[in-house]
Amino acid sequence: MAKFILRRVFNRVFHAIARVAPGSTTLRPTLHRWRGAQIGRGVFIGDDVYIDNEYPECVEIQEGAQISLRTSIIAHTRGSGRVIIEKNAFVGPHCVLVCGAGKTLRIAAGAVVGAGSVITRSVPPGLFVSPDPPKPIARAQVPLPVAKSMAEFWAGLIPLSRPLPSPPPAPESERPPA
Predict the structure, then answer these.
(1) Is pLDDT of 178 > 90?
(2) If one looks up domain 2-158 in CATH, what number appears?
(3) Domain-wise residue ranges, the chain
(4) Given this model, what pLDDT does residue 166 score?
(5) Phi and psi (nearest 5°) for 107?
(6) Is 175 exposed, middle or buried (0-12, 13-18, 19+ CB in 10 A)?
(7) How far is CA 125 from CA 24, 161, 165, in A?
(8) How confident is the model at residue 164 (pLDDT cuts 50, 70, 90)?
(9) Which of 75, 110, 114, 170 could form a disulfide linkage to 130, CB 3.0–4.6 angstroms apart?
(10) Which of helix, strand or coil describes residue 38?
(11) Class of residue 81 by CB neighbours under 10 A (exposed 0-12, middle 13-18, buried 19+)
(12) Rounded-to-integer distance, Cα 112 and Cα 171, Å
């Protein structure tokens, strides 16, 4: 019992350090590995990223993945599940990834999760999802972590549907005077 409590304290101390420490590709991933998270080579973990305190061993972040600042990765709700962020996937800032008991949430290889998304279901390979609610908007031909520039990434996006029509004109009462 004491070892279990000591392990939980150890996890929280190293987690608190990892959230504010420098070294997004060096020290932070190392601290999370010490906590039990499975983290591949070349992973980027931004400032203040929360990786499950109770079950860090249920989180896997594969080679080349990028997790932006203030993202929360929660591998349990009423029991542990598993969160896997595959190779070269990108999770934008302020995202929440939540997995239920006995389930696996997978952000597949090359997928991009837009800022502010709440993800409760797996995201297929190369898909770009955005919030309100998260929805597929394009297929990424060039994964964001390996693109040489944002222009290269954007040029490689293939829209999944036609753009939304233009909004209707503003009512007369809202138009500026001529």
Answers:
(1) no
(2) 2.160.10.10
(3) 2-158
(4) 47
(5) -100, 105
(6) exposed
(7) 24, 18, 28
(8) very low
(9) 114
(10) strand
(11) buried
(12) 37
